[in-house]
Specification:
Radius of gyration: 27 Å
Number of strands: 26
Shape: globular
CATH class of the largest domain: Alpha Beta
Strand content: 15-25%
Number of domains: 3
Largest sheet: 8 strands, antiparallel
CATH topology of the largest domain: Beta-lactamase
CATH architecture of the largest domain: 3-Layer(aba) Sandwich
Distance between the termini: 43 Å
């Protein structure tokens, strides 16, 4: 049994409690497949006793009864204040219902018709729909260089191949990840769309059309292109061309929300023994995730897509355009999940599912369409859940309405490939390479290890999302592996020398995993940093003690030279510690999520000073050995300190602390 699960925003939102990680979760988006192993007869959330409906939901009463039981269990077990569920089939709404509270303090119930709800990255589907509208009107060429449409700035020509709208819609443009400044905590901090895009162009780190790497910037760029080509602000365009025709009168990308919607906005909560309300965040890249809507409104949007662009006699897309939008556009590996035109395209319990999720922490929700049976659903929560609830919902939904028989026979390896060639450490393409944001990777999130077993199988441990991939995998086709419990598929790509270079997960179509060198492993880099800081801390203490004692003694030339060396080592140690303290403070105050603190240049300046001091300490270390200024333990300590300085300088260079870019 498979489920849809939000990619990395679950774990990243937890990282937001300590600062920088919250931004990685903010617009993320993707519903990706994971597994849970539960069955409808043993539903951990309380939805038990209902008969299966292999053709999907059809009877409103049955859907309501099933969802009432499921959601009551989730709100209680997962510690969530309120939620909404929408289920549609064909052109009918089977269920649009709120559960729990939109505002605990005011005891305001969650209402599918009235309660506005931030849907984050799920709103990208509206942005992509707007792109397809302009495409069918002949105003956009999906294969043209996006620079054709930009005004006042351009995407660098890093590679011969230009970035196109098809690349943006499949998240294969080759951009590095971008988080700095992506959200604000007050309306006056919101940056105009064009200004943000102009001043935050992410580096192109791979040719377009090669690999997926989920990009909020790419979606926002597409929204700006809609704005340029249509001649009206993006928010106005979608109101006139999508929300208006679909009668989605309680939906908006505007920030702050119009008062009539803001008055009905659900509060958001984090549970830590009690429900703690969270302040609302704003999104500068609005087409990528600022949309708020209601359950009834999003039902109309789903119906329009299930009906190939039509809703109650009104069309937002021609039939041929809608079918193109729903067709497979790109996949890292043809045998695994991929992208349609903005939708993720995946097989779940034997059904082809087009889906997307997202939220604005702590809100989270997901939308899924099942074209074959004309079924769609949206579930949204005003708290992520502890544990996260979205995966459990989708597990229950697909197990109940599209049950799959459990395979009795064990999976055995076909042994097409030598497992040793695949062993190594892999890292997600959704990461930052060129700026200070790279330090976010030090958490270890997005890394995975592959080892081989004696029987020819693989052990895979991948840290991504709230349900890490971990277990034994056996080969069923060349370079295609399936987990022993059949819940996950992994494929590899090798180079001309049969060395593995990339790994792809069926449950993570929005990114790939590239094999990295041993020295890039986060555990090694974290260990190196800790060791350097320990040496520097000891050196500060030893240096102060030595200075205090030395100042009472007669000063010979050798003593003075030794004092210079000690003072230089003390300066290196102190500045290095201050650099890391400044970096930690930067993360703690959310320096990667809103308007960056003005003291970021100070932190980077300290890093440069530490690097220069490390060079000087190395020079003095050579003098210490050649001229004998220090002896015995003092000489050994100074040598170790010089080595730590070199390691720390290399570490800072690797993690971009020596770049004045942020």
């Amino acid at each position: 049994m498979n489920s849809l699960l939000p990619k990395s925003e679950i774990s990243d939102r937890r990282r937001g409690h300590v600062g920088a990680g919250i931004v990685l979760s903010i617009l993320v988006c993707a519903l990706v497949v994971s597994t849970s192993g539960a069955s409808p007869e043993a539903d951990s959330n309380g939805a038990r006793g209902f008969s299966s409906a292999p053709d999907g939901p059809s009877a409103p009463d049955e859907v309501r009864a099933f969802m009432d039981t499921l959601m009551a269990g989730q709100l209680a077990t997962n510690h969530i204040a309120g939620a909404m569920v929408v289920v549609v089939k064909g052109d009918q709404v089977l269920l649009a219902k709120g559960y729990g509270y939109a505002d605990l303090e005011a005891q305001r119930s969650f209402d599918a018709a009235e309660t506005a709800f931030p849907i984050g990255s799920t709103g990208k589907l509206v942005t992509w729909t707007a792109v397809m509208q302009l495409f069918e009107r002949g105003k956009l060429d999906l294969d043209a260089d996006v620079n054709t449409y930009l005004e006042g700035f351009s995407i660098p020509a890093t590679y011969p191949e230009p970035v196109t709208l098809r690349h943006l819609m499949s998240h294969s443009a080759g951009f590095e990840d971008l988080n700095l400044g992506i959200v604000a905590f007050a309306p006056e901090e919101i940056v105009p769309l064009k200004e943000f895009l102009m001043h935050h162009v992410p580096a192109r780190v791979r040719p377009p059309g090669q690999l997926t790497a989920y990009s909020n910037y790419g979606a926002a760029l597409a929204g700006y292109i809609v704005e340029v080509v249509s001649g009206v602000p993006f928010e106005q365009y979608v109101e006139e061309n999508i929300f208006g025709p679909l009668r989605m009168s309680r939906s908006s990308f505007r920030q702050p929300l119009p008062k009539e919607l803001a008055d009905h906005l659900s509060a958001g909560y984090i549970y830590n023994g009690n429900f703690v309300p969270q302040r609302l965040m704003y999104v500068s890249m609005r087409p990528a995730g600022s949309m708020s809507t209601t359950g009834e409104d999003i039902a109309r949007f789903m119906i329009a897509h299930l009906q190939d662009g039509r809703f109650e006699g009104v069309r937002i897309l021609n039939e041929s355009t809608a079918r193109l939008m729903h067709s497979r556009l790109f996949a890292n590996e043809p045998r695994l999940s991929g992208f349609a035109y903005g939708f993720m395209d995946q097989q779940i319990n034997g059904q082809r599912v087009l889906h997307h999720g997202g939220g604005l922490p702590p809100y989270f929700g997901m939308l899924a369409l099942i074209p074959e049976t004309q079924v769609g659903f949206y579930v949204g929560y005003n708290g992520l859940g502890d544990p996260p609830a979205a995966a459990g919902f989708v597990d229950r939904f697909f197990d109940h309405y599209y049950p799959q028989p459990q395979a009795a026979e064990p999976v055995t390896s076909a042994a097409f490939t030598s497992p040793e060639m695949l062993v190594g450490t892999y890292h997600t393409t959704r990461s930052n390479r060129t700026s200070l944001e790279r330090v976010l990777d030090l958490s270890g999130m997005g890394y995975g290890t592959v080892t081989s077993n004696a029987e020819g199988t693989l052990e895979v441990h991948l840290s991504i999302g709230s349900m890490p991939v971990s277990g034994r995998f056996v080969e069923t086709e060349p370079l295609l592996f399936i987990s022993a419990d059949r819940k996950e598929k992994i494929a590899f790509k090798t180079d001309v020398n049969d060395n593995a270079t990339r790994m792809f997960l069926d449950t993570r179509p929005e990114c790939a995993f590239e094999k990295i060198a041993w020295y890039e492993a986060p555990i090694l880099n974290a260990a190196a940093l800790i060791a350097c800081m320990a040496i520097f801390a000891f050196s500060v203490l030893a240096g102060l003690v030595s200075w205090w004692r030395g100042r009472k003694l007669a000063r010979s030339r050798v003593d003075r030279e030794a004092d210079r060396a000690r003072r230089l080592g003390l300066a290196l140690s102190a500045v290095s510690i201050l650099t890391i303290a400044g970096l930690i403070a930067l993360l703690a105050v959310g320096g990667f999520t809103s308007r960056p603190p003005v003291w970021i240049p100070g932190v980077l300046s300290l890093a440069w000073i530490a690097a220069v001091l490390s060079v000087l300490v190395v020079i003095f270390a050579l003098r210490v050995w050649i001229r004998g200024y220090l002896r015995g333990a003092a000489r050994l300590h100074y040598t170790v300190l010089a080595a730590a300085g070199v390691v720390f300088a290399v570490w800072m260079a690797q993690w971009n602390l020596l770049k004045f870019s942020w």
